[in-house]
């Protein structure tokens, strides 16, 4: 935890050395990369879910059908 904290502190200090314009540009870049990472993870999750459905590990149904099955 100390290493991660010190790495973060180092990164913050480096960013503070940038001009305000460069800091703003860096924020935009980081934001776009985070969005892309989330998008890629979502694509992976959808593919995993589709695979699970195709192999019969997941079923479709309504909440009422699920509740009825749980009562059995």
Protein architecture, described:
There is one protein chain. This protein has 72 residues and is mainly α. It has one domain. It has helices at residues 2-16, 20-54, 63-71. It is elongated, with a radius of gyration of 22 Å.
Features:
72 residues, mainly alpha, 3 helices, elongated
What proportion of the residues is helical, as a percent range?
over 70%
Mean pLDDT: 92
Largest sheet: none
Cα end-to-end separation: 48 Å
Large-scale geometry: elongated
Number of helices: 3
Number of domains: 1
Report the portion of residues in β strands.
under 5%
Structural class label = mainly alpha
Low-confidence stretches: none
Number of strands: 0
Task: Note the topology.
Elements lengths: L1 H15 L3 H35 L8 H9 L1
Short characterization:
82% of the residues lie in helices and 0% in strands. It is mainly α and 72 residues long. The chain has one domain.
């Amino acid at each position: 935890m100390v290493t991660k904290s010190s790495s973060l502190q180092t990164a913050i200090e480096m960013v503070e050395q940038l001009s305000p314009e460069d800091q703003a540009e860096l924020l935009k870049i980081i934001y776009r990369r985070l969005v892309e990472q989330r998008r890629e993870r979502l694509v992976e999750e959808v593919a995993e879910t589709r695979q699970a459905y195709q192999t019969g590990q997941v079923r479709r149904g309504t909440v009422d059908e699920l509740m009825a099955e749980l009562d059995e």
